[in-house]
Design goal:
Layout (H helix, E strand, L loop, with lengths): L1 H13 L2 E2 L8 E3 L5 E3 L6 E2 L3 H17 L18 H9 L5 H4 L11 H4 L2 H11 L2
Antiparallel strand pairs: 1-4, 2-3
Protein name: Protein kinase domain-containing protein
Organism: Xylaria flabelliformis
Length: 131
């Protein structure tokens, strides 16, 4: 999922757009396991790359720790749950260009098919949470 988000961010940056406030709420996954960034109208031309890095770090932290951070700062809440590759990627997000992050060993383990079975369960959970 992170690989697809970074690919989308690279696409936007190539067009001069910076998504400063990226979050899990701005990422969609369809039944095929494809990941898309939504609300691109929130992008800014010549935006703040530090804000983009920080928001991506927080999103990665939320996905990996599987819970909301009590503070708004990015940091590892449960480093014991993370692989060495994940920790290395997390700590290098703010200093590494997106093109290099896309080649990171942690992201090379990606498999889109792993998400497909999860999508129907997420949709069911989201539907029942509204009530």
């Amino acid at each position: 999922m992170l690989f697809e988000v970074l690919t989308g961010l690279e696409f936007l940056l190539g067009r001069g757009l910076v998504y400063e406030q990226l979050s899990c709420a701005n990422v969609l996954v369809n039944f095929a396991g494809e990941v898309k960034i939504c609300n691109v109208e929130n992008c800014r031309r010549s935006g703040n790359m530090t804000e983009l890095s920080t928001s991506f770090s927080k999103m990665m932290m939320n996905l990996m720790d599987k819970e909301r951070a009590k503070t708004m700062s990015a940091g590892l809440m449960h480093p014991d749950r993370w692989s060495d590759e994940a920790i290395d990627m997390f700590t290098s997000i703010t200093t590494t260009p997106i093109q290099k992050l896309l080649a990171h060993t942690f992201l090379l383990k990606k498999n889109q098919n792993e998400l497909q079975w999860l999508v129907p369960f997420v949709l069911i959970a989201a539907f029942h949470k509204r009530e």
